[in-house]
Write a structure and sequence with these properties.
single chain; alpha/beta; Rossmann fold; DNA polymerase, domain 1; 7-stranded mixed β-sheet; 13 helices; 7 strands; about 40% helix
């Protein structure tokens, strides 16, 4: 199966990153290289791009799709939370812009062996890389209280308790290892309940499991300060998120680092000595156009925020 990923908000990414000839950029989630290609086309003849991805199949796809720029790209199979170490190991510097696209690729969703999709009967894997814990491990080993917590916190699932109870009841009889088993459980809980209008009933639980398996929110919190530190003055950071939990982390980080003082209002004189490091470029979150959503329905939940380092 070919690794495919339609780059979301491509024109907007280029607009806010503002790549210029001979500048250097980092794509922290390079995927198939769609965004990277657009950036490299703008940064010739000598601009370089460091592409990072935890999914080795994404790295292999990027090698093929970006082979025309082979002397100007460095591709690293690693977790973007290790950005500082990656920069040290590669010697990549003078960074003018960083992109962080937090979405799944079409390949990852459709691949039968990955377990990201609630369609079919795939193994409940959901790993981006070679981490030890799979979604099946979580479903079969976590305590009921922990399942309820992740479904609520990471999936904002209103029936988290009922779904967790059904999981625990079934796994006493047999292991739950396939996506269709989990979907059957969720559909059973939703049988006589109001269903979400725009998404499948299993969407939120699958999202929660994926976040837990890959430690996504913690990794996002780790990468943002590293990205800001790595940028040159006037360098730009663009983040595309796909659900409210990610967007909240990005929004709050940008807001904090755009302020000079973080002291509580009751303290009349600043004692924190915090200095603003960035300026927010997107006063309102940027969303895909209706035209893009029609062409690529998976883009509908994308939210872009951008800042410039001062």
């Amino acid at each position: 199966m070919k690794f495919e990923h339609k780059p979301v908000l491509l024109d907007e990414v280029v607009e806010y990153l503002k790549p210029q000839p001979n500048q250097n950029f980092i794509d922290c989630t390079v995927g198939g290289g769609g965004h990277a290609k657009a950036i490299l086309q703008k940064t010739g003849p000598n601009g370089k791009l460091l592409g990072i991805d935890l999914d080795i199949q994404a790295i292999e796809a990027a090698k093929q799709n970006l082979q025309e720029f082979k002397d100007r790209i460095i591709l690293i199979n690693d977790n973007y939370q290790n950005l500082k170490q990656i920069l040290y190991d590669t010697g990549f510097n003078k960074i003018n812009g960083i992109l962080l696209d937090l979405g799944l690729s079409s390949y990852q969703i459709q691949a039968k062996t990955r377990g990201f999709s609630f369609k079919g009967d795939s193994f409940l894997d959901m790993r981006f890389g070679e981490t030890e814990q799979t979604a099946a491990d979580i479903i079969n080993k976590y305590k009921e209280a922990d399942l309820i917590r992740i479904f609520k916190e990471y999936g904002e699932e209103r029936y988290a308790k009922q779904i967790a109870q059904e999981i625990v009841d079934l796994r006493k009889k047999q292991p739950i290892t396939k996506t269709n088993q989990l979907v059957d459980i969720i559909e059973k809980v939703y049988k006589n309940k109001p269903k979400p209008k725009k998404i499948h009933v299993a969407t939120k639980v699958f999202q929660a499991l994926r976040i837990e398996v890959n430690n996504e929110l913690a990794n996002l919190k780790k990468i943002l300060p590293q990205a800001l530190e790595a940028l040159f003055k006037n360098g730009r950071l663009v983040v595309i998120s796909f659900h409210s939990l990610e967007d909240k982390i990005v929004k709050e980080f940008f807001k904090k680092e755009s302020k000079d003082c973080l002291c509580p209002p009751q303290i009349p004189v600043c004692v924190c000595e915090h200095k603003a490091q960035l300026k927010i470029l997107t006063k309102k979150v940027v969303k895909p156009s209706q035209t893009e959503i029609m062409k690529n329905p998976r883009s509908r939940s994308a939210k872009l925020r951008a800042v410039v380092k001062i």
